[in-house]
């Protein structure tokens, strides 16, 4: 039988959208945890004792690395400008949009399952974040092999000077700031 797709109220769907975003973050392996900025669009499709939720969410990158496993609600958002020092411009924030499809079965404890997602994000252009009073600018650089070597040497030094019985190794360099 044909199942109808009906618009969902974006204000009341926020809890389910937050759960869906946590499911997306758990499937990602690179970058930083996405936080929910707002629900742009939401549709539900009811099929017998199940429902499919189609979401379009505006997201912002948080300060939590994706490998931390933290939920987006417990992560802070990057500021457009540093609060610690008004004379230094902070790194640009990253924003974007995620299209997410989840599946919920009423028979299996109403657990929301991720069916699929596609997120497109980009940094806020630096000309939008111009800070005339900032004598020092910070820019994000592309990660190179040289940066990976520098990180590995720094961690090697830390390992040799620490009293830890286990040693650390560089898995991946996420971001380079200049």
List keywords for this structure.
alpha+beta, 178 residues, Nuclear Transport Factor 2, Chain: A
Characterize this entry briefly.
By secondary structure, the protein is an alpha+beta fold. Helix content is 17%, strand content 35%.
Notes on the structure:
- The protein is α+β, with helices and mostly antiparallel strands and 178 residues long.
- The protein folds into 2 domains: 124 residues, Nuclear Transport Factor 2, Chain: A, CATH 3.10.450; 38 residues, no CATH class.
- The chain is built from 2 helices and 7 strands.
- Strands 1-2-3-4-5 form a 5-stranded antiparallel beta sheet.
- A hairpin with a 2-residue loop joins β2 and β3.
- The longest helix has 17 residues.
- The chain is elongated and about 60 Å long.
- It starts with a strand and ends with a strand.
- About 7% of the residues have low confidence.
- What is the top-level CATH class of the largest domain? Alpha Beta
Our Rg estimate from Cα atoms comes to 20 Å
Q: Average pLDDT value?
A: 81
Oligomer: single chain
The largest β sheet comes out as:
5 strands, antiparallel
The domain count comes to 2
What is the H/E string? EHEEEEEHE
Percent range of helical residues: 10-25%
Shape: elongated
What is the terminal separation in angstroms? 58 Å
Count of separate DSSP helical elements = 2
Given as residue ranges, the uncertain stretches (5+ residues, pLDDT < 50) are 80-91
SS strand fraction:
35-45%
Structural class: alpha+beta
**Could you tell me the number of beta strands?**
7
GO molecular function, one term: cysteine-type endopeptidase inhibitor activity
InterPro entries: Cystatin_dom, Cystatin_sf, Kininogen_Fetuin_HRG
Subcellular location: Secreted
Keywords: Blood coagulation, Copper, Disulfide bond, Fibrinolysis, Glycoprotein, Hemostasis, Heparin-binding, Repeat, Secreted, Signal, Zinc
